[in-house]
Amino acid sequence: GGGGGAPPPPRGAAPRVNRRWYPFKVVDQCGFITRDSVWVGVAPVPGAAFTYLPNPSNPLNVQFFNQSSDTNYVAWYFGDGDVSSDVNPTHSYMKPGTYSVSLAVADSLGCTDSVTVDIELRMDYYVYIPTAFTPNGDIINDRIKVEALGIEGMQWDIFNRWGLKVFSTDDVDQSWDGTYGGQPVPEGIYSYRILIYLPFGNITEQHGTFTLIR
Predict the structure, then answer these.
(1) Do 50-121 and 126-212 share a fold?
(2) Could you tell me if 172 and 148 are in contact, meaning their C-beta atoms sit under 8 angstroms apart?
(3) pLDDT (tens digit, 9 = 90+) per residue, 105-120?
């Protein structure tokens, strides 16, 4: 009712909300007037924003910094199929390229916002080998091959679990079909070594493993 000023704010109101009493009146069909006030809280909409910083020594490792306002929940979508709920995640990409990275945020009241940024990752040189292949004759992923950019040459050797060299090539366009001496090798984990010849006479070496699945 009127008089005496507005009552005190209700307890337990959500934080970071602009609150005030709004007076109103209601006139019924007989002309009687009722006055009252209602407590209204308007929460600020969360603002999604982020920056990122590639690692200088490995540009495919990227640190993301959440700069959103008024958020209690975050979800990152890195553009390569991976996601994270960390506030400031670090993500490792497999290949250079352009990725659409999205950040979705929500506050304690359930209000949401999102932002998407295209990031371009470049490298002076790049060498990549898949983590698995399936030489089973179905024409899908039947061979394994080095993907490389910015190199002048390479020497690629593949070894079985006993250290036997089962494949070797210096041709960046050549792939392996999972055979040795004309016979299929057993499925399992194989290791590789790549000598990478870079411009200006520089040489580096890369090691790793992949899985052969039949």
Answers:
(1) yes
(2) yes
(3) 998 888 899 999 999 9
